Amino acid sequence: MQKGFLSEIERGLKRPSVEAARRIEAATNGEVTAAELLGLSSGVREEGAPFFTERDLAAEARALGIDPDAIARKAVEDAVKRARIDAWIDENREAFATNARDVEENGLWCDRYRQF
Hints:
Number of strands: 0
Oligomer: single chain
Largest sheet: none
């Protein structure tokens, strides 16, 4: 294991794989546990994974190369975007109805230019 990688783990910039965490635990004679390194106990900073209560699932996802934090962030972004769109539609529902009535009564502004 390279010093740079260990430094990134120490600063919380990266999380090791399950195998790397076990090797670090063995090298430190249990002073640093694999559970701490994988975020399965309170010894690891929590800012990186605020959405998880199932730490085993998050650790397994990371071990499989899946970034659960990014997935959660994207899901929240998508939900907020959808909620904003829904709110905008609700706010403008009357205008949509007025426009639809106008088109029904008067047709489209471009109807007289159609060639079909």
